[in-house]
Amino acid sequence: MSSTRLLVLPSLALAAVFTVVPGASAATPSTVASPALIGFNSPSEPDSSCGRAAVPATFETVHHPAVSRTLPAQTHSEWQWQRAVSTADVEVSRLVVAAARSYSWSRVVEHLEAEYSRTVIDQAYVPASPEQGHLVIEILHPAVIEPRWLYEQDESGNVRWENKPFRNPGQGWDFIDIEWFEVRPAEIREVWEVTRAAVSETPEVSHVETEWVSLDDGAPAGFTATGATRLVGSTVETAWLPEGVEPDGGGWARGAMSGTAAVTEERWIPEGDPVPDGFAPTGAIRDGGSTLETTSVTSPNAPEGHGWEVVPGSEVVVTDVEETVEVETAAWDEQVQVTPGVAATAPCAADPAEEPDGQPDLDGVIEGAPDDAAPGDAAPDDAAPGDAAPDDAAPDEAAVADEAAAADEAAVADEAAAADEVERSTLPATGAEMSPWLLALGGSSLLAGLALVRGRRGVS
């Protein structure tokens, strides 16, 4: 065991001595719990200390959850069903051609052609046109032009033209302008220039084309009928028509008669299917084989009839009632006491001559005090010693003041003595009472711890 562990028990004992002291105030948690730890002043024993305030009990809210149970869902199984069903086919028929007699008709048909013609223009008509052209001016000799110089006289304002400029005009002539004059006009002539020669008239050149076309075909495009026809051949046309019906057109001759049987169409349809329009049952029935009938929806039981079987792999589970949770006991909260309350102790006995606040009791001493004194004051019939009875005469005011001053001095002295006594017998940190034997126990524990530490160091 190490030296640190050897110090645990003495250190705990020493800490308990200085923190757990009997008779401490109940206002701090350490002093409330300390008596139960070391065995002094247990809560069951009456506490002799006076003036201790009441400690209320503490409670804690404990939540109890709801108690419920789960009701399972109610389900059932369903399946698809199938069975083999024998079928039959019924025959239906309709009349395509009714039975009737027919006659042969014939006629000779002549094939005629009509003549058509058209005019084909080989060269179109061109009318005559005159010659077209215009005059062109041809210059034989160009015009001759020469310059002339204009001068003006300063004094008279006269002007004159000169063929050449003055080198020294003098006499007040000043140059004004120069202009060009045509000395000899140009020699020209007009020449007719032909732009298009004259064209003589050209007559139309054409020929006529004819074409024979069958009367049934009609006129070709661009052709006109001439009115001429020709026979190119003939054929015999025949037709078989029912009795009472004649062919259209003329020239027909009825020939031999022939009888025809009725033509019908037959079909086989599954029994129970609707008969197609225009058909009617003939009454004939044949075996149609067997088919597998399957239900489209699931059901817990087979449909009505015989031969139904479950379709493999078609099972489905249907929920009738969903799973529910039923609450048996609702959630609730409970107040649980954690620590009990501690009742207040009786107030400490006070000096009969002093009030709880340390002031002397002057009720009944001061002249004119009320008859309904506050609770704790002496009643008029059982007045405190030294107090004057209501019927007695009031004491002298100077005597009352002296008695009050003496009582104040005595109270102050007693309070100072009590404080000194408490300070010498209590711990300064906690205010707990300090007994001599507890001090001895603490010092012994400290010495024992030091001895163990030193012994452990010597061994090591």
UniProtKB/TrEMBL annotation:
Q: Which Pfam families match?
A: Gram_pos_anchor
Keyword field: Cell wall, Peptidoglycan-anchor, Secreted, Signal
Q: Which residues form the Gram-positive cocci surface proteins LPxTG domain?
A: 427-460
Give me the stretches of Low complexity compositional bias: 367-388, 396-416
Transmembrane intervals: none
Top-rank taxon, per record: Bacteria
Which PROSITE patterns does the record match to this protein?
GRAM_POS_ANCHORING
Signal sequence segment: 1-26
- For bias kind Polar residues, which ranges apply? 291-301
Q: Which InterPro entries match?
A: LPXTG_anchor (IPR019931)
Region (Disordered) residue ranges read 281-309, 348-424
NCBIfam families given in the database record: LPXTG_anchor
- Protein name per its UniProtKB record: LPXTG cell wall anchor domain-containing protein
